[in-house]
Amino acid sequence: MKKFYLMAVTLFAAFTVQAQDVVKFAPLDNSPVDISYFPNKAVKFKKTDNPNPVIKVTYARPSAKGRTIFGDVVKFGEVWRVGANENTEIKFYKDVTIGGKKVPAGYYSFFAIPEKDKWTIIINKELDLWGGYAYDESKDVVRVSVPVKPVSTPVEALSIAFTTQGNVANLVIGWDKTTVELPITVK
């Protein structure tokens, strides 16, 4: 009986080692995923005196790598996923107002149509898309035009952050020599 148990344990161990050799993990992505929150430190410390998150943006962060981004890598006048890989998604934990339009709490896709002097920012109902290839304008919740603000120091990796002005959360997108701000009114 001891020989049977010994043989069973040996076979189990051999199978387990062999099964582990089959797993091939993907290499690190060139555009790693990141998350930005408003308020900025809402989920980092989980203390009762910190505010709960109101907005969460999940996006992939491509790098410029010496390329001209807007007008070249990201074409002017075309829908862009605001990042790389899967489209960027935004979650509103409570109702907000964008461009004078109420946007109910929930998950949305976040797209843009960059131009040289302005961008059209798009909040869309469709989720789980790869890039902007299957973008459907009929599922737009809101579209807002925002001005481009050039920066003197280029931003190497696409970045999204928030600034605050009273009850307005400015979602700031920066990449290469360009920034734009989307004002989001939070109640």
Automatic annotation (TrEMBL):
InterPro entries: DUF2911
Keywords: Signal
Pfam families listed in its UniProt record: DUF2911
Signal sequence interval, chain numbering: 1-19
Protein name: DUF2911 domain-containing protein
Native organism taxonomy: Bacteria, Pseudomonadati, Bacteroidota, Flavobacteriia, Flavobacteriales
